[in-house]
Amino acid sequence: MKNIILNINKAFDHRIRLGIMSVLMVNEYADFNTLKELLGATDGNLASHTKALEKVDFIKVEKQFIGRKPNTKYIATELGKKEFKKHIDALEKLIKNK
Questions:
Q1: Is this prediction's pTM over 0.85?
Q2: Tell me, what's the pLDDT at 98?
């Protein structure tokens, strides 16, 4: 029997990480406050999950100042997009598996 969960990526296991990647797959980028609002996450929770995705090079982070306010922008990397697509495809195959 083949391993039906082989391509499910543990980096996307948490619902916040799944949400971050989902947002970044359909948008060029998203800033911290947008992700926080869309996902209903706390500052610390969102920061820890974005750091986990950054650590495996699935997203990149750009920090800048807009006026005097700091702004953090997140962008999915090509590797992140490729791995997320593989993850979603694996989930679909798992669901359709008899």
A1: yes
A2: 56
